[in-house]
């Protein structure tokens, strides 16, 4: 059985949904199809959550109207029985008339997960009307996680049992990416951009023959084409190179996607949903690592420097305290470096998490920070590639290993 994953960009309008139907009809009539929220719906729902928590009623109403109008606009260009979609929209509107219940992250998952529910309800209805035998499955009944809201950890045993029971291999299963459910019935999400990971979870559980993620790019390139003009398609990539590129921030694949696939030797194809004849990129058990230098840019980075207030060394006890605080705040470290009594980390400057992190760190450390930075990673670098990216940049921090260099820079 094949697993397909369609992201928000691929189903941002009615034409995108029709294109999905065309691809499924041509290449995946017996596939599990994992779909993300349409277009930028997740961002809109995030804004709705923050406004709801802050009791900013006009913004909540504006976001509800925006989400409804956007999905109604897409349905207007399609055919199908969309009654389930209207029920979900009504449920969202009625939920937000009362005050939010639960912690911020729990409330977030309750609302933001609905983007994927809406998209899959529209797509399943459209495929059914188009004569494609389709079952809509609820990922909340399939993907069992712990209660780490916004970053659910998968219970693989339970998830595998549920997925095997639910998926009918003779037809198309439409399943939401990104979302799951804890044992107590509360909805969780797997982390932003987590639908690629959902596809890998389903593939792992079903021992799928392959996973294909359909993208708005020809495949995995040696840099994000939004940043670089002369990119090169990477036709074949080892699991190891793929996991390293994704880990450093090549957003074309979610970093958690690779491990479940590598563990079962399931190939991952990254292909264009625009040019569906093109082969794209194959990630799998291939002998040869990459030779082309690859560039990864992360913007809006924050460099945090910590100095123990008691002048103690940055050794095991301080390190474990620091990592504990980062884990508690849910902030991932993109790069770290230490000297005897200083520890520097580079993180995404996520406004919703950084303030509480800095408050916690200030209890034991003198904290300083520098914002508005870029983190540039080059895998398989040489000096000319470093020189190329440092034009008009001031270098604040550099870290080199045999294959990878990371540069923290500020616009000069
Ligand atoms: N190395 C890379 N190769 C190809 N695309 C990349 C790379 N790094 C970043 N990207 C970006 O990833 C985007 C596709 O991912 P994303 O927008 O998250 O898709 P989706 O919504 O389908 O999951 C591309 O439009 C491209 O800008
Ligand atoms: N909708 C979620 C999950 C996801 O993976 O989306 P996409 O496939 O469009 O990146 C998000 O935006 O985070």
TrEMBL record:
One of its GO terms (molecular function) is ATP binding. Its EC number is 2.7.2.4. It comes from Spirosoma oryzae. GO terms for biological process: homoserine biosynthetic process; lysine biosynthetic process via diaminopimelate; threonine biosynthetic process. GO terms for cellular component: cytosol. Belongs to the aspartokinase family. It is an enzyme of class 2 (transferase). Keywords: Amino-acid biosynthesis, ATP-binding, Kinase, Nucleotide-binding, Transferase. This is Aspartokinase. InterPro entries: AceGlu_kinase-like_sf, ACT-like_dom_sf, Asp/Glu/Uridylate_kinase, Asp_kinase, AsparK_Bifunc_asparK/hSer_DH. It catalyses: L-aspartate + ATP = 4-phospho-L-aspartate + ADP. SUPFAM superfamilies: ACT-like, Carbamate kinase-like. It holds the Pfam family AA_kinase. Residues 2-272 form the Aspartate/glutamate/uridylate kinase domain. Gene3D superfamilies: Acetylglutamate kinase-like, Aspartokinase, catalytic domain. Pathway: Amino-acid biosynthesis; L-threonine biosynthesis; L-threonine from L-aspartate: step 1/5; Amino-acid biosynthesis; L-lysine biosynthesis via DAP pathway; (S)-tetrahydrodipicolinate from L-aspartate: step 1/4; Amino-acid biosynthesis; L-methionine biosynthesis via de novo pathway; L-homoserine from L-aspartate: step 1/3.
